[in-house]
Amino acid sequence: MKNKRSIPLPIKQRRLLQQVGEQIKLARLRRKYSLSLVAERAGIAISTLELIEKGAETVGMGKYLMTLHALGLADDLLLVAKDDELGRKIQDAELTTSKRAPKRKK
Q1: Is 6 part of any domain?
Q2: What does the alpha-carbon distance between residue 82 and residue 5 come to, in Å, rounded to a whole number?
Q3: Which DSSP string corresponds to 60-90?
Q4: Has residue 102 been placed in a domain?
Q5: Could you read off the pLDDT tens digit of each residue along the chain, which spans 106 residues?
Q6: How many domains in the chain?
Q7: pTM of the prediction?
Q8: Are 67 and 42 spatial neighbours (Cβ–Cβ below 8 Å)?
Q9: Are 27 and 64 in contact (CB under 8 A)?
Q10: Of 12, 19, 86, which is closest to residue 52 (Cα–Cα)?
Q11: What's the rounded Cα separation, in Å, for the pair 68 and 42?
Q12: 99 inside domain
């Protein structure tokens, strides 16, 4: 087996992930939930929750999602790329009507 090498996140994406972690922490504090309560509800270790709140890139997306679920915020993940303005513009610019060849008669 080869050693897994992780590619470090660029600085901008690292800061975004740290911001997500901070927002998760603030959501927990607004609800007055302890670290242990959220960790238990999410099915993760307290140390993992602490890493999530710091925006650690080493924590899997599933654990972030379970934490959001424990806070009642899992549906917020559906807002990611919901309004993909650039993607829609690209899609609209490349719209072509494909013409099918007529079906062959047997």
Answers
A1: no
A2: 31
A3: -HHHHHHHHHHTT-GGGGGGTTSS-HHHHHH
A4: no
A5: 455 677 888 999 999 999 999 999 999 999 999 999 999 999 999 999 999 999 999 999 999 999 999 999 999 888 887 888 888 888 888 776 566 767 777 6
A6: 1
A7: 0.76
A8: yes
A9: no
A10: 19
A11: 8
A12: no
